[in-house]
Every structure is written in C-alpha cells, then in structure tokens.
Prior knowledge:
Elements lengths: L13 E6 L9 H8 L2 H4 L2 E6 L7 H5 L5 E4 L5 E2 L2 E2 L2 E8 L4 E5 L13 E3 L2 H5 L2 H8 L8 E3 L6 H4 L5 E5 L3 H7 L5 E3 L10 E7 H6 L1 H20 L1 H12 L5 H14 L12 H13 L7 H6 L2 H6 L7 H10 L2 E3 L4 E2 L3 E3 L5 E2 L1 H13 L3 E3 L5 H9 L30 E4 L17 E5 L3 H9 L4 E5 L2 H9 L5 E5 L9
Helix pairs in contact: 1-9, 10-11
Amino acid sequence: MIFTASYASAASLQKIVVQLEWKYQFQFAGFIMAKELGFYKELGLDVLLQEYTKHVDVADVVDGKIDYLVSNSLLLYNEDGLYDLTLLATYFQTSPLVFAVQPDILKVQDLKGKKIVINNSERTNSSLAVLLKHYAIDINNTTFIQPNYDMNDFIQKRVDAVAAFTSDELFELDKKGVDYNIIDPVDYGYTTTAINLFANYDKVINNPQEITNFLEATKKGWKYALNHIDEVTALIHEKYRPKKSLDALKYEANVTKKLMTESLYDIGEINSANLVASYEQLVKLGLFQKSIYDLHMLSLETYKETQHLYLSHDERKYLKQKKEITICVDPKWKPFEWIDENGEYKGMGADYFDAFISQVGIPYHLHKTQNWAQTLDSLKSGKCDLLPMVSITQPRKKFLSFTDAYYKMPYVVATTLDKPFIADISTQLDKKFAVIRDSAVIDYVKKLYPSIKFVKVSTVAQGISFVREKKVYGLINTTAVYIPTHV
C-alpha cells in the first residue's frame, strides 16, 4: 500500500511531545498510526511519541515541558487538588486496569501487607489508587515495587499482586497456564476509563487549533488501526515492540476494540456525566477539596459548556497555595459598599465581588476597618490583599495594581438648599469643600483646580454634617451616595 500526502515543510511543522504511560503496543495504536500515515504532518504537527521509562512526571505536562499526556487515569490529582490539566479525549470507555493476584488472595483487603508491583502513576492516580485508598492500603503497611516489564516475578510467586491490563499481561499468564485471581475496581464500585488524553489548561486556552488538529489526526489514526488490525499489529511488532509477540499484539488489539465500545461512543468521546461523578467520588473520599474552578477545567466538554474567568497557571498555583483572600472595603460608602450591623460586606461592590469570587473558587475573609483611611493603611501594611472597589490615582499606583474599570461614576457637589446651583466649580474656588480623607476625588480635582481648598473628613456622614453646620460650602463625592437623615 502506498500513501501520498502533501505536507508542510519540516521547518514549519509544530513540534509536539506526547508522553505515553506504557511501552509501545496496540493500546497506543491510534497515535502510532496517525504518525506513521502522516495524519499529524498533514495538519502541521511533528509528533514525538515518548514511551514510558521509569516514571511519568505529571508536573512536566503542567509546566508545558510535555505537550500531551496519555494516562490511564480519568482525573490527575495530588493532595493539593487536581493538577491544572484538561481532559481532551477518552479512548478506552472501560478501563482494563486490574490487579492480577496470587490464587490465595480472594479480596482487596487481603493485599494489605503484601508485595504489589505497580508504577507510581497507577498507585497515585488511577482506579486502583482509589481502591487502595478506600481500604487503607498504603506504603506504611504494604510493599510497592516498580514494574520491570515482565511477569516473571509474579509467575515465580516472588510478588503477590501486579497491576495489569486485561488486554495485555493477562494474555501472557493465560498462555503459560499460570493460575491467578483478578481484583477489578469495577467489582467494588469504582468504574473508570483508560487511555485518556490530557493537556495543560493554558494550552486549551491559547492553542485551540493545535488541539483540534491533534485530536482530528489521532481519531483518523484510531479508525485506521481498528479496521486494519493485522497490518497495524505487524507494524508495531516490527518497528516499535519486537519483543512482544505478534499473537499478544493481536489479542490486545481485539480486546482494545471491545474496550472502545464504538457502538455506544464516538472515538475519543468524553462521558461528562461519568467524569463529574468520578470527581465527586474522589472529593467524597477526602482525596482533595472541591473547587468551582476544577469543574470548569475538567475536560474540553465542561470548558465549552461553562463561562469562566481565565487564570494563568501561575495565578491558579498562587491561589491554591494562598487558600484564602483577605479584602478591605470602605465601611461607610453606601450604596457602593459598606459593612452592615452584622459585620457583613454589602452593596454594589459586594455583588460584583461575589460574582468574581464564585469563579475563582477560593473563600475570602473581610478585614474590618472604621473608615477609608484605615482601609488604605490596612492594605499598605499587608493586612488585606485587595480592595473590591477603588479608583485609580497616581499616588495609589505606587502600591497598587489595578484591573480595568468595571463601573464608572461622576463626581458632584452636595450643598444646602439655600445655595445656588454650581454650574462651574471654578467660580467657587474661594470656598472650602469637604472630601473623604485619602479618596480619589482629592487627586482628581486637585489636578483640575490646584487652588481649591479641601477640608478632609473621615466619612460621608461627617462631610454632610460639616455642610449643614456651614463649616464647608459643600461636599465633593460620587453621585450615588447615601446621605444619612439623622446628621
């Protein structure tokens, strides 16, 4: 068979590194054939398929050192929560990952205190990991051994159990007539998938076309592999895995076809309901805390279905480490923001901030102050992290970073009814005006009218009192300010 294709020049191809979670074999046939038949190159991708050696470092994918990771885990996490990775595709809708155990081991509880062959990834991020966690089987009471890519230690009974694929290692045991039992997580209520494709979240945001191209080419590779099993297994045996027998590869191919359940799922389709249920299950087991942001990043499907604030990897890492945001507000700036009699943050600023914080997925704490000057002092001294509602001034730029404006309001002058309407404040520069101490109005108005005379007050209420007592001609502040009737 001769294949012809028009490829982009080698110099223009985007280099891609894909980390596999095991040795080259049919479970990665879709990727292998997409590379061999030029499907990746047709879409501008130069793909390196990197087979498993001794360890897969998920951090390399999070940090962008590796572009894509093929994992047998549906969710990748550590004690701090989910990694900043997004599930792009699921190829095995049923996981073939089980424990092959010696005949005298009948249930998962019997594994405690035994010798188990399992790699680090499967021990920490897989259905087997969840099973071990549920039954408190860990490094404190059980011996875990890194795999050496053959089953001899198990056959010779030097180990008690081995993590195995029903499509792979069990073929060897059956062929040699070895007696064994199977402990399958499905029998204990832990269903999951395998051959899941991940990329870091930043790539999902910044390189959507690359991801689309990679998924399209890989899907074509899988279609070809599943429809040409004899040809593909021969190629893998000859070029990628000569030590694995052709019979073993064909057995694996036929099991793989069943695991992909093409009659129910499209190639690579993600079962979002199953994904979210698995996430909730891990949270319930106490493996990590639930985060609203996690639900957005879980997969391409959940990403497309939800609108969410985008944070960079460094920003998300900072928030995970920080765990809580402390805010300071103006305690008496109604209706914009204030602290009510119950000590709660209220007002327009509170509504905007609640909408923002709901997307960040991290709790916040209110550091209470008595007035705006104290609020700014608390921020400068590090007692709080941010101000939800604040105007930009040149002096504040020295110690604050600002977002784009989400609300704008003009300044007005409030005075007593016996005063004429002020059409032009430049005609009243011989008068005194009250302003809130450290407020943005001071910097703004002083730039326009350097000679204007200010009397600084702590609150709007105090400023209105000064107006009524004729200590000042008027109060300069924003338009929609609540004026207490009792002052």
